[in-house]
Write the structure tokens for this entry.
Amino acid sequence: MLDVPRRLSPVELTQKQMLALFPTPMFTGKLSDLSLCDRIEAKLRRLQKLGKGTSSPEGAVLAYMTPDNIQTLPEMKELVDVIMDEAGIVLDTLAIKRKSHYISNMWANIANPNRRHNVHIHPNCLLSGLVYIKTPRNCGPTIFMSPRMLTKNIEPSYVRKNELNSDIFVSHAEKGRMLFWPSHLPHAVEQGTANESEERIVVAFNIMIRGLVELPTARLELR
């Protein structure tokens, strides 16, 4: 008999794993006491009535924004305390060295629930965030865009969208929901389809750190 060589099994890859390289983290949670949103809304309405901040011209779609330092108001302390505690947890999770952190800006928008807001980022800070204070049904969601969107030279078709191939994340407005994200992340408000008898109210904020950044040739003291 002739010796017939045995057919070897095909070579296989072992010890397989998938590495999530350079992910963009987003942190979210919900206020345990939604009545805080109602107390915040009452304060924001008073600011609006007093003419503090800026409003859209008469006859234009409603868009009112408070001054950007409302974190200093006594009536905002309860919310500020939550933001500061949660920002500390986020910074610790990201392993960011610092002496301390603080809210550099904080403001609120009271707007027509269907009003769009163009794509933008928040410069001059490390983290940004928001908390939804009033969210009429079907009001505009917040849209987040991947920074890699404009660097692709080819975009294949996908069998299904998932977190590995999507460049858009939609955060539907939910009363009491708080979000934190890296400040360089582009975002916008999409047009809603809500009943326009109510307004969409959001408090937004920026977080910065204090301390010494000890990087060779990039040493920076943040005070």
The chain has one domain: 27-150+165-211. The radius of gyration is 23 Å. The CA atoms of residues 44 and 138 lie 22 Å apart.
